[in-house]
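// run 5 | inverse folding | seed 20
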């Protein structure tokens, strides 16, 4: 299906005009540019799908800061964003003197974006200061609100007593599972499943449960038995295309793994969709032919 979409896209007049603008001359360059564009589209699509979760994450941080409009905050609303920046500077960050905050407080001014970029530079913000792209806006707000949370905690550390590590582990792990596995037994089970160990009992238990339900379910076992004699060709991770580069070899490998897992999930979803279509067709179609009656169907 992906190849079919690629072919249809390559044959399209809009793609040919785009290739002409990009000065593309060979089919190989077609595919390389198409892959780069596809990665960009997938990233934007992923941000769109995760938007509700990202908004909820920002709202929870704002609730921790006691922002009065945290529950209704919309990061894509320019007015709300500007008012939030002013509130954070006035109450939490306090980078400027009061008399130097006039440029930020003029939220309706055309030059507010320039003042905001200067403000981010003074804060030494490592994120992209562009507010045009949705993904850049989420990253920027996450850093800015997180920076305010850090400063708020530093100013009020005495009000937040440090919880001992043992108590934190006990609270995060939740109630013991019915099997009542000890930490050592759970670590041994994780080692058998080739999973890395984790200090948090609950996190490790969830990882083990996910592997057991995905690889040792009746359907997964049947599929593994059916494919046991199948010859598989393993492609090294270094030869797997990523479509972009982060500059960090380890990070690139992690991105490749996430991309392959995403493709695997899409393949499983497509298989289930195909099975559903076949099931519906079996209910709606009746291919029985009766030549004596000269008609199809009963």
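// decoded
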């Amino acid at each position: 299906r992906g190849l079919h979409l690629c072919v249809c896209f390559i044959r399209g007049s809009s793609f040919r005009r785009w290739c002409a603008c990009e000065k593309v001359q060979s089919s190989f360059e077609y595919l390389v540019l198409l892959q780069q564009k596809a990665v960009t589209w997938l990233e934007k699509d992923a941000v769109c799908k995760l938007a509700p979760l990202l908004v909820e994450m920002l709202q929870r941080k704002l609730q921790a800061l006691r922002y009065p409009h945290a529950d209704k905050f919309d990061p894509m609303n320019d007015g709300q964003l500007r008012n939030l920046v002013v509130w954070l500077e006035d109450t939490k960050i306090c980078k400027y003197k009061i008399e130097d905050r006039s440029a930020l407080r003029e939220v309706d001014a055309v030059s507010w974006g320039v003042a905001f970029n200067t403000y981010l530079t003074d804060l030494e913000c490592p994120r992209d200061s562009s507010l045009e792209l949705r993904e850049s806006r989420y990253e920027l707000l996450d850093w800015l609100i997180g920076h305010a949370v850090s400063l708020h905690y530093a100013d009020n550390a005495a009000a937040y007593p440090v919880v001992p590590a043992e108590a934190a582990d006990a609270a995060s792990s939740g109630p013991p599972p019915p099997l009542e596995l000890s930490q050592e037994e759970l670590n041994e089970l994780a080692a058998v499943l080739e999973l890395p160990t984790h200090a948090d009992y609950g996190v490790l238990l969830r990882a083990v449960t996910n592997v057991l339900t995905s690889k040792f379910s009746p359907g997964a076992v049947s599929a593994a038995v059916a494919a046991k004699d199948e010859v598989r060709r393993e492609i090294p991770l270094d030869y797997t295309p990523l479509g972009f580069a982060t500059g960090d070899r380890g990070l690139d490998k992690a991105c490749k793994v996430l991309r392959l897992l995403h493709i695997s999930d899409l393949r499983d979803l497509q298989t289930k969709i195909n099975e559903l279509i076949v099931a519906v067709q079996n209910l709606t179609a009746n291919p029985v032919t009766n030549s004596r009656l000269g008609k199809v169907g009963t």
